[in-house]
Amino acid sequence: MPNRELLIYIQQKIDLGLTPENVRTILVTNGWKEEEVTLAFQMIKDGVLTVPEKSQKREIIKSKMGVRVAWGALVLIVVAVIVAWYFLV
């Protein structure tokens, strides 16, 4: 069974516009076994590998960024409350 990195590499290169034949040639030229490359292409064709689309990756990054912004805002509020309490007491 092909490793996940090979499957992701093939999918990324196809997404960039390379033909499957070009990707296959690159892999075999760089030492990958023809059988393993063929199996990897078949697995991708059968939908075994699902690489998130670029838009999905952006949404994941945005959601992580939103959490970081929320934590940053919470820290600022806590610091502001502490400073206000210090000067008012």
Helix-and-strand structural type: mainly alpha
Q: Give the radius of gyration.
A: 24 Å
Assembly type: single chain
What pattern of helices and strands is seen along the backbone? Answer: HHHH
Mean pLDDT rating? 84
Helix content: over 70%
Give the low-confidence spans. none
Total beta-strand segments = 0
| Ends apart, CA distance between termini | 68 Å
Shape summary: rod-shaped
Write the layout of secondary structure elements.
Layout: H1 4-15, H2 20-29, H3 34-45, H4 54-88
Helix pairs in contact: 1-3, 2-3
Would you write up a description of this structure?
The chain is mainly alpha-helical and 89 residues long. It has one domain. The protein has helices at residues 4-15, 20-29, 34-45, 54-88. The longest helix has 35 residues, at 54-88. The termini are far apart. The model has no long low-confidence stretch (mean pLDDT 84).
